Amino acid sequence: MAKFEAKKFRSFDVELNGISKKTMEEHYKLYQGYVAKSNEILDRLASGGVDLSKANPTYSEVRELKIELSRALGGVKNHELYFEHLGGKGGKPAGKVLGLLEKAYGSFDAWKADLTATAMSARGWAWTAYDFDAGQVFNFIGDEQNTYPIWNCALLVALDCFEHAYFIDYGTAKAQYVAKFFDNLDWTVIGKRADMFLPS
User: Fold this and answer.
1) Of 2, 96, 115, 164, which residue is the least packed, with the fewest Cβ within 10 Å?
2) pLDDT tens-digit map of 72-111
3) What are the angstrom distances between the C-alpha of 172 and each of 89, 122, 127, 175, 194?
4) The domain boundary residue, chosen from 42, 65, 84
5) Where among 31, 62, 84 does a domain terminate?
6) Would residue 7 count as lying in a domain?
């Protein structure tokens, strides 16, 4: 069975604008916890000790393990996307990414305003994702680690809206954190993501 390991990210080696080292250090511990729990659940599922004949949608061990695996793995993958594209200088993207945002929202500023409103409405996560069926990006809400609901999409931007992402620095002033998030985006990283699913 595959094992997950906590990755290293450049965003922890640079000074972020308005997101403290303390916040990042505590946030990384949370991510490490998701990695550990993912591996623990995978080990339990692979152990042969789970009675699959007792599977039940009201309650069963296999149901609990599968649901919590989706939450733990969501916590791993969501945070990896988030940490990976922090550490930049913000500003405005160029090229393919700018074209995607302008096609969907009319302008970069309109996309930013929409993602800001999406984040302020979100309990957990706000994402910009490319929908392969529609051929454009959308900003989506996911209120939990495992409630990103849209299939056949590829994530470009992941904005953690849980209180742990900003409470140390901003208390309940979530809007200030969201504004600083944009100031720290690395558009080169996001551009490389776009290149993976939309080659030139």
Assistant:
1) 2
2) 999 999 999 999 999 999 999 999 999 999 999 999 999 9
3) 25, 14, 21, 9, 33
4) 84
5) 84
6) no
Full residue range of the structural domain in which residue 75 is found: 19-84
What's the domain count of the chain? Answer: 2
pLDDT at 200 over 70: no
Q: How far apart are alpha carbons 78 and 61 in whole angstroms?
A: 25
User: The tokens 């004949």 sit on which residue?
Assistant: 53
**Gyration radius of the chain's alpha carbons:** 18
User: Would you call 170 helix, strand, or coil by DSSP?
Assistant: helix
For tokens 């039940």, name the residue: 56
For residue 170, is it within any domain?
yes
Largest CA distance in the chain: 55
CA neighbor of 141 nearest in space, from 156, 163, 160, 119: 119
* C-beta of residue 84 within 8 angstroms of C-beta of residue 11: yes
Give the neighbor-by-neighbor strand order of the sheet with 125-131: 136-142, 125-131, 153-160
- pLDDT of 50-72, one tens digit each? 999 999 999 999 999 999 999 99
